């Protein structure tokens, strides 16, 4: 008798139309899986949140391709949204179901990276900047120009990330070019070669950057805006982040809904929660986050929060170059250029 | 079944698992990689690659890959020579002069690096080799006026890390051939009036040559493809190697075909070197 009740109950509880789970695909530790946030959303929606992670954009795309109908919400960097749509792994999002949609920055929200063939495939969530930070004890004034990385005054005192795409893009900005499509690749090569002797060593992770900065190995080092805020706040390092006058690398991430998502209704709700001030302010204050695409959320941050003080300035945002999709050939070409530069450094 | 047949079945039964294992774990993945190296892109996610020789052409014609190959070969030679200079005398001392429990204790110390995680070992060198690190402080404690020693993030640091990792191979292979030398040969030479130098040059060294060569091959081959030590200890000056570039092709830009083509080029170079050295090695071993 008990078995019958349980089985019948389970049948009605689990029948289609009333999904009870929400499957999210994201980097680990990137906001959506904060325990307090999951708890708030689960209480609000009555839906259980289940996370799966990826370690690279390629892995994320592979998971979407090979497991259709499994994931609901997926985080995609805006430079990859177009490819995901072309491969047919995403479904359009109904912006009328996102209550906070009107508060999102128009530049990101209405970007052609998300709006494809008149349909919306990604909701702008967070954004950030890649440029450099400096040690405020070693440099008395904030450097205004990206040329500080090439300044002979800091020979052997520069930290640089060992990454081909980032290196080429920074050199393109320093030579006054479109970083997504540098017309004069030879100028980029020469600019990168000119770093010989400048770099103390390469860094590869936020943790490593903090160790090098803490050990006073760097005076100036390339860095990410969100990480700089954490280094300053959580690690008490004497550093400040700079968006130089020549511009910097801008990137933004969107939240998308997978094709044939089992719970598209809750997926819309979850995305709305993610772009709300309620979630973002606590995320940035307690943990440290990239900048929000929601202007109202940024305005609620403490006045000294970097995401408000530095990145909240429209003049700063206007200087950014946003990362565009890249072809495999372009990637391979940049990698070879960077490998060649590193071999030149080693000579 | 006669005795001969029974022996054949027994040999087959004993060796088949090992061969099956080798086929499954080495031959199949390697063949897949060799196949990938002739494709335009890795055949994942419904992509339609076509056959190409572009990767090999690029490797053989561009100065960059020639330069990287030469740098990796030089690293292999430097590490191997350092291992011989440090390892052979140590093996000689162990085999001929240290006895009993002391020998066991010293063996334990030599094999210890094998038992520690390679990554931990390499990171511990970053603390040792940096300016104001352990070595630097020790030197200044003894000689206060010395200039600061900071070799972290340089080519020498890579060589130090690799020698530490591979030295046990050299000591163990040399030790095995040295302790197998018949004591009476040396006594005979002594009786006939040969000085110690001659005994070493005419008897000990030739007879221990097989161990020395085995150690050389065991060290040289993996070192030229190494990527972890150059990546962590080499910094700007020492990380540009063939191994690190192969690693980047796989982990950074997912260009498996090009990474595979680089790996097989490296394998071809190793086989070529061994092939060229083979006649010489055979002659040396025969006269020994």
Strand fraction band of chain B? under 5%
Order of helices and strands of chain B: HHHHHHHHHHHHH
Order of helices and strands of chain A: HEHEHEHEHEEEEHHEHEHEEHHEHHHEH
The assigned CATH architecture of the largest domain in chain A is: 3-Layer(aba) Sandwich
User: Count of DSSP E strands of chain A?
Assistant: 14
Given the helix and strand composition of chain A, which structural class is it?
A: alpha/beta
Q: For this structure, what is the CATH homologous superfamily of chain B?
A: MetI-like
Q: Stretches of chain B where pLDDT falls below 50 for ≥5 residues?
A: none
Global Rg of chain B: 24 Å
Largest interface: A-B, 26 and 26 residues
Q: Quote the CATH topology of chain B.
A: MetI-like fold
Mean pLDDT of chain B: 90
Q: What's the tally of helices of chain B?
A: 13
Distance between the termini of chain A: 81 Å
CATH architecture of chain B: Orthogonal Bundle
Sheet with the most strands, sense and barrel status of chain A: 12 strands, mixed
Give me the count of strands of chain B: 0
CATH class of the largest domain in chain A: Alpha Beta
How confident is the prediction overall: mean pLDDT of chain A? 91
What would you note in describing this structure?
- The complex is a heterodimer of chains A (347) and B (288).
- With 347 residues, chain A is an alpha/beta fold.
- In chain A, strands 1, 2, 3, 4, 7, 8, 9, 10, 11, 12, 13 and 14 form a 12-stranded mixed sheet that branches.
- Helices cover 41% and strands 20% of the residues of chain A.
- Chain A is built from 15 helices and 14 strands.
- Chain B has 288 residues and is mostly helical.
- Chain B has a single domain (62-287), classed as Orthogonal Bundle (MetI-like fold), CATH 1.10.3720.10.
- Chain B has 13 helices and no strands.
- Classes of the chains: A alpha/beta (347), B mainly alpha (288).
- The interface between A and B is medium-sized, with 26 and 26 residues.
